[in-house]
Amino acid sequence: MSNQSGSLAGALAACCSPLAEEPLGPARAVELARAFKALGDPARLRLLSLIASHPGGEACVCDVSDGFDLAGPTISHHLKVLREAGLISGERRGTWVYYRADPGALGRLSDLLAIAGSGAAQPPEAASA
């Protein structure tokens, strides 16, 4: 039931040199912005965190929807956005869908933001310490 956008999944799979090493091209920037935009919503970020940190590495939608002041369809929408961004995958088992974070996609986004050994990107107070 992994319903990922082909272009975004491809962008994450082929990704990426760190931003500090080479600039992104326009097409890659558009594709990656979708994943970061998905993470830019507090509810989606919390959902991803709940799924990723759940024992066994996967969580039923019934396990992650508690604690949100959101209706079921809104939770489903947020999960769909995360799935389409390639950050999670889902598998239907009976009446429930179980979600799993994609550690590869999250790792590639993290690698994209990595700053190689230079102190240039450190805040001034950290560089002078």
UniProtKB/TrEMBL annotation:
Residues 24-121 form the HTH arsR-type domain. SMART domains: HTH_ARSR. It holds the Pfam family HTH_5. Keywords: DNA-binding, Transcription, Transcription regulation. SUPFAM superfamilies: Winged helix' DNA-binding domain (SSF46785). The keyword Nucleotide-binding does not apply. The keyword Mitochondrion does not apply. This is Helix-turn-helix transcriptional regulator. It comes from Pseudonocardia humida. The lineage of its organism: Bacteria, Bacillati, Actinomycetota, Actinomycetes, Pseudonocardiales.
